[in-house]
Amino acid sequence: MEALKRVIGVVLIVIAAIVAIQTVVEPIYHTSSAESPYSSAWGWIDPLAAVSIILGLIFGYIRMSRADASSSVQEFLAANTLFYGFLSVAILFFWNWFGISDVGKGFTVISADVRSLVWIIFNALHPLLSGAMGAQLLRASISE
Fold first, then answer.
1. CB atoms inside a 10 Å sphere around CB 4
2. Cβ atoms of 138 and 12 closer than 8 Å
C-alpha cells in the first residue's frame, strides 16, 4: 500500500504542476477568441484534473475518517480542509466541465465570462489541494 501511496502522491503533484504551469503560461502563448476561448491543451489536462480530483476525494475521505477524537487538532483541520476543499473544487470543475461539453451545451443560463471566472478559481485552488494531498501521501508512505 505504501508504494501505491507514493505513486499516487507523485501523480497528484505532477498534475498539480501541470495545471498550475498551464494556468500561468496560457496567456503568453494563446490568444483568446469567441471561437477558441481556451487553448487546446486543456483538452488533455482536464481529464488529468478529473482523475486527480477523484483520487483527492478518495484519499481525503480516508484521511478524514481516520481523524477521530484522539487525533490532534492540526490533523483534524488538515484532513477536513483537504477533503472539503477537494469536494468544493470537484463541484466547480465538473459543473463547468460538463457545461462546456456536448452534454451541457443546452445549459445557457450563464455567460462565458462566468465560466471563465469559475475556471480561474478552480485553476488557482486545484494545484494547491492536489499538491498538498500528494505531499501528504508521500510523507505518510515514507513514515510508515
1. 10
2. no
Q: Which three cell numbers stand for residue 17?
A: 504542476
Chain segment 119-128, per-residue pLDDT in tens? 999 999 999 9
| 8 A C-beta contact, residue 137 and residue 8 | yes
pLDDT at 51: 97
Show me where the domains of the chain are located: 2-143
Predicted structure pTM score: 0.87
Closest listed residue to residue 18, CA positions, set 53, 38, 44, 39 = 44
Report whether 12 contacts 60 (CB < 8 A).
no
Question: Which residue bears the cell 462565458?
Answer: 112
User: How many other β-carbons are positioned within 10 Å of the β-carbon of residue 56?
Assistant: 28
CB 140 within 8 A of CB 5: yes
* Cβ-Cβ contacts under 8 Å for 125 (sequence gap 6 or more): 85, 88, 89, 92
Which stretches in the chain have pLDDT values below 70?
A: 34, 36, 102, 104-108, 141-144
